[in-house]
Amino acid sequence: MAAAAWSTLGGRLRRALWILLAALAIGAASWAWLALHITYSQGERAGLLQKFSRKGWLCKTYEGELALYVVAGVQPTIWNFSVRDEAVAQQLAAAVGQRVQLRYAEHRGVPTSCFGETPYFVERLNAVGDPYPAQPLTPVPAPAPATRP
Q: CA-to-CA distance for 63 and 57, rounded, in angstroms?
């Protein structure tokens, strides 16, 4: 009789554990979906796209750095961002070294770095142009030969 009671208790405990695990999995999936689909803020940033790469051991993500210049001659502020869209990632890879304007959405509370290492996800890119446009070289006149008096 005691063995039957223990097996019933064990069956109930296993069932409760499976329900708890299922509830946790559904809760985590819901949290990830909400964090990725509800935008905390949106905006645009402009600067020099100085780095763009695909990173990660298991979860490969696109990550980039934008140098935000406020005043010429002052060290820039670096803004890190992530990209989820493959087409935007290809455009950014082609624009490294150029001034760009990026449209982004901030998603706070994303539960894992498998979606991106930052909360800022770039959605669109406008290339502004090369920060150092090629200018024609002007020849420097040779110095006049020195004459002796």
A: 14
Closest CA to 66 of 133, 126, 134: 126
**3-class DSSP state of 127:** strand
d(CA 52, CA 31): 28
pTM: 0.67
| CA distances from residue 73 to 64, 76, 101 in whole angstroms, order as listed | 23, 9, 21
**Sign of the torsion formed by the C-alpha atoms of 98, 101, 105 and 108:** positive
What residues in the chain have per-residue pLDDT under 50? none
End-to-end, the C-alpha distance of the chain in Å comes to 127
CB atoms under 10 Å from CB of 120, counted, come to 21
User: pLDDT per residue over 89-127, tens digit each?
Assistant: 999 999 998 999 999 999 887 777 777 889 999 999 987
Summarize the chain as % helix, strand, coil (round to 5).
30, 30, 40
Dig out the tokens for 49 from the structure: 């796209």
